[in-house]
Amino acid sequence: xxxxxxxxxxxxxxxxxxxxxxxxxxxxxxxxxxxxxxxxxxxxxxxxxxxxxxxxxxxxxxxxxxxxxxxxxxxxxxxxxxxxxxxxxxxxxxxxxxxxxxxxxxxxxxxxxxxxxxxxxxxxxxxxxxxxxxxxxxxxxxxxxxxxxxxxxxxxxxxxxxxxxxxxxxxxxxxxxxxxxxxxxxxxxxxxxxxxxxxxxxxxxxxxxxxxxxxxxxxxxxxxxxxxxxxxxxxxxxxxxxxxxxxxxxxxxxxxxxxxxxxxxxxxxxxxxxxxxxxxxxxxxxxxxxxxxxxxxxxxxxxxxxxxxxxxxxxxxxxxxxxxxxxxxxxxxxxxxxxxxxxxxxxxxxxxxxxxxxxxxxxxxxxxxxxxxxxxxxxxxxxxxxxxxxxxxxxxxxxxxxxxxxxxxxxxxxxxxxxxxxxxxxxxxxxxxxxxxxxxxxxxxxxxxxxxxxxxxxxxxxxxxxxxxxxxx
Length: 473
Fold this sequence. Notes:
Blueprint: H1 9-18, H2 23-41, E1 44-47, H3 49-69, E2 83-84, H4 111-118, E3 125-127, H5 161-168, E4 175-179, H6 185-190, E5 194-197, E6 217-222, H7 225-235, H8 255-259, E7 267-270, H9 283-298, E8 302-305, H10 312-327, H11 341-351, H12 355-375, E9 382-386, H13 404-414, H14 419-424, E10 428-435, E11 441-448, H15 453-464
Parallel strand pairs: 2-3, 7-8, 7-9
Antiparallel strand pairs: 1-3, 4-6, 5-6, 5-10, 9-11, 10-11
């Protein structure tokens, strides 16, 4: 079947469960496409064909047993899922997107990888990422930049740009990503995909690099809301030592089950203007936002626009915390020179951050969460905003190796909407709804109350459904 990559992940899993498709055949199909196409794309840093084929054979045996015994398989059983190269897989190279760790091999699995194995998914490899996941592009010193499959001269965004490029190019049916400031939702918007960042604590960040700030979470990139919801379902769950945990979804249902149900009429608040001082919304992104607001009204939802003033204190707080994250990586003596200029600059910034300033920055994040709860979510159910302030940019356009401080300001103006959901720990999803005159994808962003992914995916699926592919389940 030459069109296997046109099927949704859930359709593939259904075919595996019915015995109509072998996980081995499916895995070989994607490995062939990676070998044929990824040389130009740069979506993967490491491909794991031996591990993939071994997992596919095991998944096939389990599928045969399940059909014989009449038992049910997991919703993504037998489906190939690459993981971002910020995540550790035992015995597999993990570079964190940095030349300084080009030869590092992990000696244990992160919990999210354990969950993916338990779900019967197949590890295709490790997708490309910005160094330490810090910038919102996918360019590092390990090789050529990752390209946007929809416009190869343009960036897929970042830092989960390799994951987005793999899904958009049909090198994987869906992909794992991480998101500490928009790193799932930014590339999803740039590549015309769904990008789901769940609530803080929904998916374990342990055990190797737990995130005490609460900024980062694992997330999903997919072509449909249902696929993204299913991937978050299989990755989710509390593990010992977790700093944060999230409560179950309403009614004991899975996120996928909620994605397949229409939402009740909800109150949507539109935040058009960026909260970052000096950021300017591009007309094409504004038009996509207006179109989404009109579509929600046509679906029976109440839509109201509210202005939130720009807040430079949030940018300053994020900069301090982000610099400490950059400095937390223990680079071997003598290899600091292999770091990207932006990373090196952030680590120097961290040298001047005191413990009191760091604690105050985290308190600023918590204060923003309380503000949104008291000011917006007391009256509204969902936040609608642009995903990005601009359409996808050219490769290299966001980088400024000569002036990393200017680079940081440029990136902040490009992505002024996504980070608020990381500062507060709220769930958020990018929905691909529009294209500009050049055919570049323009996404919009939905956010909800803490732990209310159920409403979020239900509404996103309803909004996306008229545009979803015919292969959706």
